[in-house]
Amino acid sequence: MASGPLADQLAAIASRIDEIARADARQLADLKTELLGRKAGQLTRVLRDLPSLAPDARRAVGRQANALKHQIEAALAARQESLARGTQRADVDLTMPGRRTWRGATHPIQQVVDEICGIFKDLGFARVVGSEAESEAYNFTKLNIPLDHPAADMHDTFYLGRGLVLRTHTSPVQAHVMERYPPPIRVVVPGLVYRRDPFDPSHAPVFDQIEGLAVDEGVSFVDFKAAIDYFVHRFFSRETAVRFRASYFPFTEPSAEVDVQCQMCGGSGCSTCKQTGWMEIMGAGMVHPAVFEACGLDPERFTGYAFGMGPARIALVRYGIPDIRMLYQNDMRFLDQFVE
Ligand code: PHE
What we know:
- It contains 13 helices and ten strands.
- It has 340 residues and is α+β, with helices and mostly antiparallel strands.
- The longest helix has 31 residues, at 55-85.
- The chain is rod-shaped and about 120 Å long.
- It has helices at residues 5-14, 17-22, 25-36, 42-49, 55-85, 108-122, 136-139, 150-154, 172-180, 221-235, 289-294, 311-319, 332-335, and strands at 126-127, 133-135, 159-161, 164-166, 185-194, 206-216, 242-249, 252-261, 278-287, 303-309.
- The chain has a seven-stranded mixed sheet with strand order 1-5-6-10-9-8-7, sandwiched between helices.
- α1 (5-14) runs antiparallel to α4 (42-49) and α3 runs antiparallel to α5 (55-85).
- The chain is 39% helix and 20% strand.
- Phenylalanine (PHE) is lined by residues 169, 171, 249, 252, 283-285, 306-308.
């Protein structure tokens, strides 16, 4: 066994080997430099100083130093491998709080859409969808909106070229359904629609609508009012008052807008309902004979009602949300409140 200052240094270095087995990745890199570093590594220095020893001592210390070097290299490699495998991680703190992962949930607008479609399902309405890109024929002309009619402008359309538009409402699906399926027809059509409106507290350039259509022999405005009364009382509350106001749409005659008692103030007037006590929830009316004709149905034989509502706007009314943009910004602090 060699003795002397270099041998003492080797003993000191050997006593560090245990540390290697416990090191985390960073400590491991530090230990490697500290012990084997090419310039200032402790073992490197011992090897460098060997020539100062007498030949016998040099041989003994040299052998010991080389053995130690291999031992350290083996320990470093073993630790490296076990860290890479993730086993025996000395740096894992088991008392650390768990990392929270997000769980998916239904967006409040989708919740409202599903609930509305569910209520109409109980009234016999099937749920169908259409396409967001439509021809001008389906978005306008088949719905009795001539292309030079102000109503076509009113919709502030996004034109896609080649006679295609981003649908400005879900009403074109009425025409598709009437062309494809014979009456009796009862459908609700949820989907996105597009208008060149800037985002503001009550408008969005893309928003949700739900179209409703019922066509059969002998369907009257009374059937329409009964369906809407049923819907409002189930969706809002038994006590919520409903009113039908005369209005105008090219594809319905007569046309109406449906208001419900303001859910914020109960009807006494507040800033949400602009002091009217009412909130508009849909446009509606009896299907115009010209629309039946454009879709190949005999207006002498069939009648029907149609309605279009905005679930985002209805979500605002229901939950007292002050700004429609909140529904489209995906801020988790807002959305978290609607996790069921
Ligand atoms: N399509 C109309 C709109 O977007 C709403 C509507 C649908 C009105 C069906 C009457 C009948 O404003």
